[in-house]
Every structure is written in structure tokens, then in C-alpha cells.
């Protein structure tokens, strides 16, 4: 089944397309909101600037797919394969990405506010700010997620829950002084997170909870830890 056939059936009122093969299909600039693509094959498909809000991609394979600038608000992507997918500038507000594989995916400038990413694999994922937009992970649920080697430079993570997340060797530093954004983890929960050898140069961690976190080799140069709870349970004050 190709993209034109999907669009034709959708316009006739069909919403369910489980297990369809849309590998390398072109679904650009179309509206397929509330559509169900569970367990479907969309590898290397082009879905840029489309509306997939409230769509279901449960356990679908979206490896190397292009969702640049796509609306995926409240989409269900749990257990989906998004390896090396391009989700730059995509709207993933309140999307469900629990246990999804986003390794090496590009999420530059994406809006992931209030998204559920519990136990997701985000190894080497790119969350950097784009030239005109900061990656928004505020209030995101990242409990137990693997963010090893991920690039979160200038990402907005205020109020995010990163309990027990792996951020080993992740980059959370201010990357480009010409871009006004910094990595903001204000009031984020990082309880028992692995931040070993992560780079948090210039990051804001005001009132963040780092109880039990592993900070072995972590770079915190010029980081703002005012009011943060350190791994030993002590409160960090500027005078200390």
C-alpha cells in the first residue's frame, strides 16, 4: 500500500491501517490525524510537515523516517522504532514515547513538553537547539530513559523527571554563546540519575534534585546549582 492509497482511504473515513507497508512512502504535507498505523513499516518514509496529531504508531518501525516539522501532538509512539529518524522541529507535546527506540534520532528544536519518554532509548539522540527554536522537554517524563552520549545542549528541561535516567557522557552545556538559550534543568528531578562524565558547563540546575545521582567526572563549570539538592542530600547555597 502506498501513500496515495492511504490518503484516499483516509479521506473516505478509514482510520485504521495496522501492519501496512509504507517503506519509503511520501506522506508529506497531508493530514492523517487520529490514524492508526500500529505495527506498520514506515522505514525511510517522508512524513514532513504533516498532521499526525493523536495518531497511533504503537510498535511501528519508523527508522530513518523524516518527520521534520510534523504535528505529532498526543500521538502514541510507545515501543516504536525511531532509530536515526528526523523529528527536528516536530510538535510532540504530550506524545507517548514510552519504551520507544530513538537512538541517534534528531530532535533539534522539537517540542516534547509533557511528553512521556519513560524507559525510552535515546542513545546519541540530538536535542540541540536549532537556530530559531529551543528543544522543549519541560515537564517531560524521562524516568529510566537511556540518554547516554545524547546532545542536550541548550535544551529546556525545567520540571522534567529524569529519575534513574542514564546521562553518561551526555552533553548538556551551553554550546553556542551567540544563541541566548542555555540548558535549563530548573526544578528537574534527577534522583539516582547517572550523570557520570556528562558535560553540564554553564547549565542551570536551580532547585534541581540530584539525590543519589552519580556525578563521577561530571563537568559543572559555571553551572548554577543554587538551591539544588546534591547527591549526599545537602542543599547547595551560593555561599558554600
Describe the structure.
The chain has 1 helix and no strands. It is mostly loops and 240 residues long. The protein is elongated. The chain starts with a helix and ends in a 229-residue tail after the last helix. The relative contact order is 0.08.
Tags for this entry?
single chain, 240 residues, little secondary structure, 1 helix
Write the layout of secondary structure elements.
Layout (H helix, E strand, L loop, with lengths): L2 H9 L229
N-to-C SSE series?
Answer: H
The N- to C-terminal Cα distance equals 64 Å
What class, by secondary structure content?
little secondary structure
**What fraction, in percent, of the residue positions are helical?**
under 10%
Outline, from the CA principal axes? elongated
Amino acid at each position: 500500500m502506498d501513500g496515495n492509497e492511504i490518503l484516499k482511504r483516509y479521506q473516505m473515513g478509514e482510520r485504521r491501517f495496522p501492519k501496512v507497508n509504507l517503506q519509503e512512502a511520501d506522506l508529506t504535507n497531508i493530514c492523517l490525524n487520529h490514524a492508526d498505523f500500529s505495527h506498520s513499516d514506515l522505514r525511510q518514509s517522508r512524513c514532513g510537515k504533516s498532521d499526525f496529531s493523536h495518531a497511533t504508531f504503537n510498535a511501528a518501525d519508523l527508522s530513518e523516517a523524516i518527520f521534520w516539522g510534523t504535528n505529532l501532538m498526543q500521538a502514541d509512539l510507545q515501543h516504536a522504532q525511531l532509530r536515526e529518524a528526523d523529528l527536528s522541529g516536530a510538535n510532540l507535546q504530550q506524545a507517548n514515547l514510552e519504551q520507544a527506540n530513538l537512538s541517534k534520532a534528531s530532535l533539534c528544536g522539537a517540542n516534547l513538553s509533557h511528553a512521556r519518554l519513560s524507559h525510552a532509548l535515546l542513545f546519541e539522540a540530538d536535542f540541540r537547539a536549532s537556530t530559531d527554536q529551543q528543544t522543549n522537554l519541560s515537564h517531560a517524563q524521562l524516568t529510566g530513559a537511556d540518554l547516554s552520549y545524547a546532545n542536550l545542549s541548550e535544551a529546556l528541561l525545567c520540571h522534567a523527571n529524569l529519575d534513574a535516567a542514564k546521562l553518561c557522557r551526555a552533553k548538556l552545556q551551553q554550546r553556542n554563546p551567540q544563541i541566548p538559550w542555555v540548558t535549563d534543568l530548573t526544578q528537574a528531578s534527577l534522583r539516582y540519575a547517572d550523570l557520570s562524565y556528562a558535560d553540564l558547563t554553564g547549565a542551570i540546575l536551580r532547585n534541581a534534585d540530584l539525590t543519589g545521582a552519580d556525578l563521577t567526572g561530571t563537568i559543572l563549570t559555571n553551572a548554577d546549582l543554587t538551591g539544588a539538592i546534591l547527591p549526599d542530600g545537602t542543599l547547595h547555597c551560593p555561599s558554600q
